[in-house]
């Protein structure tokens, strides 16, 4: 096709030369020849493009086939390499199987030889002497030895547990080591229950009853321990009633001190006494989160710094007859709060307003605030956690209280397992007490 078009173009070029020479460029015949020449050029160009496109398509198809062949070749190479690895692994396994088969054959032969030798030796055995049955054991002696060994093992176990626990395990141990009476045994409650909520919702549980026992003991502990009640002129005098300003302290944190202070203050208020609960642990300020009352905008810290009036800081409590003077927010700058005479003046005002004031003190070890405040109270109760409070820490706390001029009058033994012996042996008479503690 291209050759034929080129031949026609060559002929048209010759005709164009003749026509131009004969008629000139503007003659219609010259114009027709030029148009024919342009048409042939366009046909040549279109035919060339078609040929080039066909060649490009052929080249693309060839490239696709070459790519497919390369992929197939790659897969074959991968399969060949995998086959090589598998053949090597199979050869290794075959060698290992042959070795184990040979070892098994050898062990089978050795076992067979051993069994044959055993049969031969048994056939050659003789009975030299008949065995006689043993004599009967001395049972009383064995019983005595077993009893003695059990007593020794039990004593050693008890001593080891006492040494490992590091805490007070019984009421007798607390009173003997600390020299103070245990006023009440506060039992632990079931996991997941809030003891303070339980006290309000079920007032007959053992937890609530233990603080009524402590409240009854405080009325008798006043004269027996030489408590100091305040007279009208503010001086301390001996009294036969419960202390007016009572501080609750502990040697270490997390011993149930704040819970005990709240529960004891509620018990006092429920008995008809006008009671105020004062949170003196300014660093933690945990009482505001434990009581059922709105969070105060200002509290003890603002009163001692003369930022608010006392009446604005005191909030109604969560039971009738109980008020709260709490810490609105934790404060680490408590060093200047209790040492400038403001706390003594505040307690003097509170003595005239309330029958009883309960102070929740900071821990005694590592902090000076608790020791200073305990000396301002009429009496101090030391909270000791069952099987947890270290004996040296409790001894140090009692010694500090006495050395500072405080008046420690008794111990609250907290978080005691009701089934333990430290609970006063009530675990032996649980069925008899069922009607007294129906909520438990």
* Radius of gyration from the alpha-carbon trace, in angstroms: 52 Å
Count of discrete alpha- or pi-helical segments spanning 4 or more residues: 13
Tell me what portion of residues adopts beta-strand conformation.
Answer: 5-15%
Distance between the termini: 113 Å
Any idea what the shape is?
Answer: flat
Largest beta-sheet characterization: 8 strands, mixed
Low-confidence stretches: 222-239
Q: In terms of structural class, how would the helical and strand content be classed?
A: alpha/beta
Give the overall average pLDDT: 85
Kindly report the spatial arrangement of strands forming the biggest sheet: 1-10-9-4-8-5-7-6
What order do the SSEs take from the amino end to the carboxyl end, as H and E?
HHHHEHHEEEHEHHHEEHEHEHE
Helical percentage: 40-55%
Tally of extended strands?
10
Features:
440 residues, alpha/beta, 8-stranded mixed sheet
Short note summarizing the structure:
By secondary structure, the chain is α/β, with parallel strands linked by helices. It has helices at residues 2-23, 28-123, 139-165, 171-178, 195-201, 206-224, 257-270, 287-290, 300-304, 310-313, 342-353, 369-376, 391-403; strands at residues 182-187, 228-230, 236-238, 245-250, 275-279, 315-316, 322-325, 356-360, 379-385, 408-416.
What does this structure look like?
Residues 222-239 have low confidence and may be disordered. The termini are far apart. An eight-stranded mixed β-sheet has the order 1-10-9-4-8-5-7-6, with helices on both faces. The chain has a two-stranded antiparallel sheet with strand order 2-3. The chain is built from 13 helices and ten strands. Strand 6 and strand 7 (322-325) form a beta hairpin. The protein has helices spanning 2-23, 28-123, 139-165, 171-178, 195-201, 206-224, 257-270, 287-290, 300-304, 310-313, 342-353, 369-376, 391-403, and strands spanning 182-187, 228-230, 236-238, 245-250, 275-279, 315-316, 322-325, 356-360, 379-385, 408-416. By secondary structure, it is of the alpha/beta class. The radius of gyration is 52 Å and the shape is flat. The longest helix has 96 residues, at 28-123.
């Amino acid at each position: 096709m291209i050759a034929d078009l080129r031949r026609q173009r060559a002929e048209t070029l010759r005709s164009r030369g003749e026509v131009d020479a004969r008629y000139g460029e503007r003659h219609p015949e010259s114009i027709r020849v030029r148009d024919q020449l342009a048409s042939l050029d366009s046909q040549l160009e279109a035919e060339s493009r078609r040929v080039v496109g066909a060649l490009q398509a052929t080249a693309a198809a060839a490239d696709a086939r070459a790519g497919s062949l390369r992929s197939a070749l790659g897969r074959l190479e991968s399969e060949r390499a995998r086959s090589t690895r598998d053949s090597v692994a199979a050869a290794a396994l075959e060698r290992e199987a042959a070795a184990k088969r040979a070892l098994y054959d050898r062990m089978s032969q050795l076992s067979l030889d051993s069994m044959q030798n055993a049969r031969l030796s048994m056939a050659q055995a003789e009975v030299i002497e008949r065995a006689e049955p043993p004599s009967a054991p001395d049972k009383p002696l064995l019983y005595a030895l077993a009893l003695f060994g059990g007593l020794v093992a039990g004593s050693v176990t008890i001593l080891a547990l006492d040494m490992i626990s590091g805490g007070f395990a019984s009421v007798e141990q607390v009173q003997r080591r600390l020299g103070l009476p245990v006023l009440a045994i506060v039992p632990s409650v079931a996991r997941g229950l809030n003891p303070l909520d339980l006290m309000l919702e079920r007032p007959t549980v053992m937890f609530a009853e233990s603080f009524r026992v402590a409240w009854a003991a405080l009325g008798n502990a006043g004269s027996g321990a030489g408590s100091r009640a305040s007279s009208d002129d503010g001086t301390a005098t001996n009294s036969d009633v419960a202390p007016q300003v009572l501080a609750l302290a502990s040697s270490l944190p997390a011993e149930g001190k704040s819970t005990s202070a709240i529960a004891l203050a509620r018990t006092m208020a429920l008995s008809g006494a006008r009671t105020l609960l004062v949170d003196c642990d300014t660093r933690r300020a945990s009482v505001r989160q434990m009581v059922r009352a709105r969070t105060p905008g200002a509290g003890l810290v603002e009163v001692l710094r003369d930022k608010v009036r006392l009446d604005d800081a005191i909030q109604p409590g969560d039971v009738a007859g109980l008020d709260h003077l709490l810490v609105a927010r934790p404060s680490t700058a408590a060093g200047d709060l209790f040492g400038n005479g403001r706390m003594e003046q505040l307690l003097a005002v509170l003595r005239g307003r309330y029958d009883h004031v309960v102070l929740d003190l900071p821990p005694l070890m590592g902090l000076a605030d608790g020791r200073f405040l305990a000396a301002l109270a009429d009496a101090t109760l030391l909270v000791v956690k069952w099987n947890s409070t270290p004996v040296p820490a409790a001894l140090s706390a009692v010694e500090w209280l006495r050395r500072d001029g405080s008046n420690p009058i008794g111990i609250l033994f907290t978080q005691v397992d009701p089934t333990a012996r430290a609970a006063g042996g009530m675990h032996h008479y649980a069925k008899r007490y069922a009607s007294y503690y129906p909520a438990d």
